[in-house]
Write a structure and sequence with these properties.
The structure is a homodimer.
Chain A (H helix, E strand, L loop, with lengths): L2 H17 L3 H4 L4 E2 L9 E3 L23 H4 L2 H8 L4 E3 L2 H7 L7 E3 L1 H7 L4 E6 L10 H13 L4 E6 L3 H13 L2 E7 H6 L1 H9 L3 E5 L14 H9 L7 H14 L4 E3 L6 H20 L6 E5 L4 H15 L7 E7 L10 E5 L10 E5 L21 H8 L4 E5 L1 H14 L6 H20 L4 E6 L8 H7 L8
Parallel strand pairs in A: 5-15, 6-7, 6-9, 7-8, 10-11, 10-15, 11-14
Antiparallel strand pairs in A: 1-4, 2-3, 4-5, 12-13
Helix pairs in contact in A: 7-8, 7-13, 8-10, 11-12, 13-14, 16-17
Chain lengths: 470, 470
């Protein structure tokens, strides 16, 4: 039959399900799904509403500014700066989103029972994407706009490998190349992550490295030479790897640009597809979160989920809404920043100076397992919201976050990434508070990814050998 | 608002989506979702219809028979033997299924385009379950019935770790213990898999092993002593590990039973929830598969997907339906069996003799990466269907299956388990055939799981170092 009728049939089943409705059955509703054509078709750009918090977004500055047009395609630069509230998602990109979107909004009844809480805990599960995290939401978008603007590839850095995997995945689906500089220690400690990226067509090299270790001649950089001159066995760091990737994009051995997995305005905007979907899902069941928890490395997961709700708060519709950025106690940029002001993002200084809560670009965070939360700075958009008091932040110790992960695996069966465990920790604390006060709060968790490839922390936790890192 | 109304709202959105319908938009339908309460509530038991193929299922025999009531709970034994066509899924178990079910039926348009085929390729994605494969469908059921029958734990063997992970997950959600004997080489080669199992509360030991390596005193077995007497550095095998787990279940240091992840009738029956869902999803879009591909280790993934469709063939409704079991060329039980008849499943001989296509229980398969397909025998229910000609089998070489995996990761973005790549290989061959003949066949793939934890094979393939194993 024609495709139109097929869809009609799908709708009919959902209609008939309604007829069969009886209350005890519906009590059991666990997942709120959206039909495929309810995926949001525009991203939400909070820059249009940010002034309502009483502050303007400080503009980036410094010599790195001159590099921006050289390492980003025009379409993404324009998204970085636009004040348009809604930015249309091109249909070709929607096609790709449909591979894993919409993702379910999941009610964690088993966890609630375990915590004996009257609170209702929901999570938005981004782990169902093929690379297992929220990263593809911006990765496919960045790859797509690079392709549309005529570029043949993207390059980036990666630490634990979530972002590198996401970008290689995105590049593969769009049909462009992806060159990844992977922090040297991770490259050797996590061969699985490297192979994932290579399976999606990526070229992955340890950072820093030189021939013969660096097998792609056109990926050799001056940055790596500097790092290796400092220390021939340099373990690498995210700061160095960013510098390498930017140098690679500036050199352009073929037409390629740099891609960043978080921090920047356009990256956060791409991630709002998650929050916009969740917003619709809550509307469907006539709920609204009282408090939202998201873990924050550079801010993209958390802001992507939270911005569509923060809009209501900025508009004065939901003054009591609480939104909590969750970070590691050992890397407390938001809860105990060294300073709030301009700082650079990389080691060499290729990036502009951006205004943010920072621990200083020379800060060396403790080696916690949540590698994705070990960045010294934070997305400026989030920093403005925190600074203006529209947004809270909490920090959690490593032992408690693995305890939260363990509770989650034993109740709901989700084996969650150490980064993501931070927001679960916040949610569990809050749910326990509700158990004491009797409040029936709606708690939302931005569940950004699974932890299958990063289980070493769980191992140490279960063996009682986890280092207490504050 | 009350829960009933919430559901009404969900249905309404799906209804309204219909109103917005216009043909070009619906062309883009990629996933066929089912509403939550359309999850099948009974399993399909093919034993009720098997006689229609002209053969009876040969009954198991031998001394191992006496062990069955000692290592399986009454409810599962009864499911193993029942001739009832439909077996009701208890509501408490449905609650658990809802954590990840229904899974999407996904139309692989990007793959079709790449293959330039007029065929329509659909896959049923079981990778979205929290442990990442189809295994939880039977794991939670087995754990549940053990719990209901008053047992406090289950024990099993695992090779690559998919089944062990699934069972630990199931046991955690049901609230019982899980003891796993993991083939010794895998235990040390795949610490990640072990930690996953431990995160779900499992006790995992290398098989064979003795104190001090075996830290749980009540898991020490005579079987392990025998194996270690043969070779103090015994690498272990699935056959030895099965014997260990059965001995552990027979000894019952606490009330526990043995669980098997495939081969047995009740295991295949639990997996039919996958095929029954797919059947409904095809009905919704008025499609029906012309040919079904599933990879077969012990047969549970493939049969779970195929049995609800084979029913139509047995009933004479779909005489032309082709169903293809996909196996490794290096372990060709179905395509080149050593013999068809009675054989045991383990090394010591604790299991009954079962009638099957076998390479002989002393067969040592080549060390292909698809560890899950390295079993010497096959589910008797599947063997009867093959023997009677209702069912086909094809075998594929290791290089071709990784090529299929690579095509898949570059087109649809799925990074698929080496085992699962076998059915994709069959599907891709068929789709290419359709490209030549112009046939618009509907090809169904039983996509049983992802390959994130088992990427070593991809690494060798991409480096051109993959061993050609026939």
């Amino acid at each position: 039959m024609e495709l139109g009728r097929k869809v009609e049939r799908v709708q009919k089943v959902f209609k008939e399900a309604k007829k069969k409705f009886n209350p005890p059955r519906e009590e059991r509703m666990i997942k709120v799904e959206l039909p495929e054509d309810e995926i949001p078709t525009s991203w939400y750009n909070i820059q249009a509403d940010l002034h309502k918090c009483g502050m303007k977004l400080p503009f980036p500055t410094g010599p790195g500014m001159a590099n921006l047009p050289l390492i980003f395609p025009p379409s993404l630069l324009s998204q970085e700066l636009t004040k348009d509230r809604w930015v249309k998602i091109p249909e070709e990109l929607m096609e790709i989103y449909r591979i894993w979107r919409p993702t379910p909004l999941y009610r964690c009844k088993r966890l609630e029972e375990y915590l004996k809480t009257p609170a209702r805990i929901y999570c938005k599960s981004e782990y169902v994407s093929p690379p297992g995290s929220h990263k593809p939401n911006t990765a496919v978008a960045q790859a797509y706009f690079n392709m549309k603007d005529g570029f043949e590839g993207v390059t980036t850095e990666t630490g634990a490998g979530q972002w590198g995997s996401g970008l290689c995945f995105g590049a593969a689906l769009v049909g462009i190349k992806c060159d990844v500089f992977m922090v040297r220690v991770s490259y050797y400690q996590k061969p699985g992550r490297r192979v994932m990226m290579e399976s999606w067509g990526g070229r992955v090299v340890p950072s820093p490295s030189a021939p013969p270790e660096r097998i792609y001649e056109d990926m050799v950089t001056e940055t790596a030479k500097k790092a290796l001159a400092e220390d021939p066995n340099h373990p690498g760091s995210l700061g160095w790897a960013i510098s390498e990737a930017i140098e690679h994009a500036l050199k352009k051995p073929y037409p390629l640009n740099y891609s960043l997995g978080s921090v920047l305005n356009h990256v956060l905007m791409h991630q709002t597809i998650v929050g916009l979907e969740a917003y619709k899902q809550y509307e469907l069941i006539d709920e609204y979160p009282d408090i939202i928890f998201g873990c924050t490395g550079g801010g993209s997961n958390h802001c992507g989920q939270a911005f569509p709700f923060i809009k209501d708060k900025l508009d004065g519709k939901k003054p009591d809404l609480r939104i909590v950025a969750c970070e590691a106690l050992s890397c407390p940029r938001l809860t105990r920043p060294k300073y709030i002001g301009y700082d650079t993002g990389d080691t060499i200084g290729y990036t502009p100076h951006i205004w943010m809560h920072s621990l200083g670009c020379d800060f060396v965070p403790a080696k916690i397992h949540a590698g994705g939360l070990r960045y010294h700075g934070m997305a400026p958009l989030l920093c403005v919201l925190i600074y203006s008091g529209y947004h809270e932040a909490q920090a959690f110790p490593q032992t408690e976050i693995f305890e939260a992960g363990r509770i989650l695996s034993m109740t709901e069966g989700f084996l969650t990434a150490p980064e993501t465990c931070h927001c679960w920790t916040g949610a569990i604390r809050e749910a326990r508070r509700c158990a004491e006060t009797g409040e029936e709060k709606v708690i939302h968790v931005a569940d950004s990814g699974h932890g299958w490839v990063d289980v070493r922390g769980y191992d140490e936790y279960l063996k009682g050998k986890l280092e207490v890192l504050l």
